[in-house]
Design goal:
There is one protein chain. This protein is an alpha/beta fold and 257 residues long. It contains 11 helices and 10 strands. The strands form 2 sheets. The chain has a 6-stranded mixed sheet, with helices on both faces. Strands 2-1-4-5 form a 4-stranded antiparallel sheet, with helices on one face. Helix 3 runs parallel beside helix 5. Bound molecules: adenosine-5'-triphosphate (ATP) and magnesium ion. Adenosine-5'-triphosphate binds next to helix 1.
Amino acid sequence: MQQPCIEVKGLNFNYPDGTKALEDLNLEIEAGRTYGLIGPNGAGKSTFLLHVNGILSGRGAISVFGLPVLEKNLTSIRSQVGLVFQDPDSQLFMPTVFDDVAFGPLNMGMPVDKVREAVVRALEEVDMLPAIKRSSHHLSFGEKKRICLATVLSMSPKVLLLDEPTANLDPKHRRQLIRLLERLRITKVIATHDLELVGELCSRVILLDQGRLIVEETADTVLSNTALLEAHGLEMSVCPGRERSGVLPDRERFSPA
Ligand SMILES: Nc1ncnc2c1ncn2[C@@H]1O[C@H](COP(=O)(O)OP(=O)(O)OP(=O)(O)O)[C@@H](O)[C@H]1O
Ligand SMILES: [Mg+2]
């Protein structure tokens, strides 16, 4: 079998105040697929994503393309795995939008002229190029979310971890983001309460509750199981968009990057 893109074995994590956030999590995430990471508030979605690029570190093991997520490998892992935080203020810290989006590529040692190209391309992708000289902190919440995505796209990651990417986006920019994610032929894990987005973009779903894995299954199987969704505080407000848009599951369109 092909090596998993992300492999998680027996992962447990408690926050310093004792809150149990992840409990005996075992998962294999295949390259080239798009996964929806769902579950009620406090399920452990954000905590899990923070483990994949080593911002948090629990008991158990995680590897990315076979490389263990350990201190000594973090530079390599973070150059391949882009994480867009749930809270944009955790991600944006430079004086201008340009500096924020250029930070990753500069840190990776990209030549300055290439950095400028990467920044412009990433800002165009999220429709924020006009804000290139502005201060990130003066932007609206939804605008900040889009800049956060650009800070990761500018590094051309192999794996994209997105935490609530559509939260606070207006309908036009939510749609634009979905189209952009559809075009990106990389492995994606999207933590979200937007089950319509999951229906449109994801071929598989990981359902967490109280830090435990409830199920990892095809998106169709999970999204059509109303009782399962309700048992974990979730509901489909609309039918899966796939049925309306005719979007195919990612596996059928892409081969793994
Ligand atoms: N810094 C922290 N200190 C203590 N407990 C925390 C901290 N951050 C999160 N938790 C707790 O860890 C558990 C998992 O939280 P997490 O933020 O991962 O959930 P989530 O699934 O992302 O929720 P949401 O849908 O609200 O974003 C929750 O019980 C939460 O209260
Ligand atoms: Mg969260």
